[in-house]
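Kindly review both lines to help learners:
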Amino acid sequence: MATAETSIQEPDYVNSPPTLQVRDLVVSFKVENDFPRAVDGISFDLYPNEVLGIVGESGSGKSVTSLAIMRLIPDPPGKIAEGSIKLRGQELLDISYEEMRDVRGNEIAMIFQEPMTALNPVFTVGMQVMETIRTHENVSKDEARKRAIEMLTRVGIPDAAKRLKEYPHQFSGGMRQRAMIAMALVCHPKILIADEPTTALDVTTQAQILDLMLELKQKEEGASIILITHDLAVVAETCHRVVVMYGGKVQEVATVEKLFARPLHPYTKGLLASLPSTHEKKDRLYTIPGNVPSILQMPEGCRFCTRCSEVIDRCHTEEPKLHDIGNGRKVRCHLLEEGING
């Protein structure tokens, strides 16, 4: 997927402070008289020049995490109940709604999961890209139009000046995704959050869009990407580090190389085992038994205990801690304490 031409600069974890710090984030939703947690105490850092992957099955809390960072959790029924989100040291949960509007699109931009619903169907694509520019920068309409045409051209939309006047329904799925990327990057944000940016696209278009994101990001010094996906093949090609989520909690954090070479959490092992292999002949692909539990019916102990093939007795009663095992790697599993995984 990612080619040599779009290879990304290696982040400097030692000398650079994180651009984004998420600490003990809790997001809950009101369901009748209860407030179950869709995201339950997650923490992670994002560094300059880094592409950070957040992976997990549907229902694991990935998209809710991204919406919380953007402060787009619908309230009611949802709310950011606890935690901290700092952008270069500034606490985003303490600033006003108007100040957060200045951050969105300007400092942090997001490519939403479904471009047809994210784009407004009653406005032209050009008007929506131009609005992003004029909201954050004091430029004329002509200047905004010129920049919109330039950005749509850069993302690979042919005859951009003409397509500027068209509506989202006149664009194909891949073109709508490119238009979303243009809107997200037109103000040169330092952080791009891409939530399943290649969902429902063919393999060729997926590769083009991922290469495009990396190429445009590379031109912005210190810019970073949070890539939210369930596609581990995409993660292997594009990311530096990976955060594995399940049941609203972080289960494992590791560099891409270490995660694929030696996964430690049983859930991560299951995800990797489900990938097709060119080295090993499989009659059937492996599937993790069961389903992600509802936030209303989470197990008492480990969130993964009802589906885990390596479960032990204490998994059903005691929530495991997120163990820091050195070199930035973390794992939430009792097996580490039992000496099974070592």
In short: The first strand starts at residue 20 and ends at 29. The CA atoms of residues 48 and 222 lie 5 Å apart. The chain has two domains: 4-253, 263-338.
